[in-house]
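Data availability (excerpt). All sequences and predicted token strings are deposited with the supplementary files. A representative entry, Lipopolysaccharide biosynthesis protein, is shown inline so that the format can be inspected without opening the archive.
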Amino acid sequence: MSTEIKNYGDAQFSDMRAQVQQANDEIDLRELFSVIWQGKWLIIAITAVFAIGSVVFAIMQPNIYKSEALLAPASEEQGGGLSALASQFGGLASMAGINLGSGGGVDKTKMAIEVMKSRQFASDFIKKHNLLPDLMAAEKWNMADNGIVYDNELYDVESKKWVREVKAPFKPEPSMQEAFKEFSKVVSVNSAKDTGMVTVSVEHLSPAVAQQWVNWLVEDINKVMKERDVAEAIRSSDFLNKQIAQTNVADIRAILYKLIEEQAKTIMFAEVRDEYVFKTIDPALVPEEKAKPKRALICVLGTMLGGMLAVMLVLIKYFVRRES
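Structure token line:
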């Protein structure tokens, strides 16, 4: 009997403690809301400052236009003969530096994508088309004459000289390392895993410049990969011709002639097709609408950030006063 009374008393005490805790929680929440309400004008003021600042910041940001092209990997039409020889003559071909498509090498499309992302290709591309001013000194785009306005503190258009002030080891004219960092920010090359399609895109202040760069990128990567394969095929043919001159075994000479024939096919295939690695499915267009900045989103996020900081400031001030 006494045990039941004790358990009943413990249960009542637990219920009372839970009710007291709930009441304290309600008091704390009411206190917090009261503090926030008392500091409402400070919260409104800080939030308004952030809102106005975010609007000004969003308006000051220049429009960025994005142009992109959809590409498909070119078919390996000359690959059939090489693949047929791979199992029989792979060892001899590897001595000559010839890839017969046995599946162990790097896919040509993947290699082309990595070449486009490389420092060497970017540097050659920038120098070839004289893109340094448009890449590093462009300030805004003039829609009236479709021209680019350059930052006078960086680049003098009349004398075509760089006038920016930088500390050593940097020079007034940006180095290719600096240009590559900026180039990597505006140029994107992506491959879809499911379809294998490749998208090349460029972001720039000028929509016309963005479209032109995409076209140049596609043309140049096809040309670079073509020149690489042709040079490799020529070197391999020279090696095989030397081997033919050094052997009198008829079977080996027949094999070597067959390998030379395949290298000749590679060279012929490269010479007759401009779209060597990538075929253009959807060409780049001059964009009519900006890609960024998202001004509305900037304003909303700026206002929300101001509101949260204002509330935190009011609460911090209250708790500091209460403890002191």
